[in-house]
Amino acid sequence: MLKAPFVAVFWTFALAIPLTIIALAGVAYVDLHFSEIAQAIANFEATTSASGRGWLAELSSRAPELEGMLIGMVIMLTIYLFIRKPAKAALESKK
Questions:
Q1: Which whole-number Å values give the CA distances from 30 to 6, 34, 46, 53, 92, in the listed order?
Q2: According to the model, what pLDDT value does residue 2 have?
């Protein structure tokens, strides 16, 4: 009976302690190199986007298209949900 709580505590600590150390080391690394990381991301965005402006500018200029597609999909799915029951009832009544 006492073996189960011991095993649970052991594996909790066996997983938590190394992962906590890794997380603290990651936070320290990001804190020391944040400006370099941000600059590397900005340079990567500028070189890989179509106009060289970066992904955020590209995506924000295409936001109306994306919103229109999403609204259209929601409208079509809503129509489908309202039409499905009457269509199913009509098919069953023909049988």
A1: 36, 5, 22, 25, 63
A2: 67
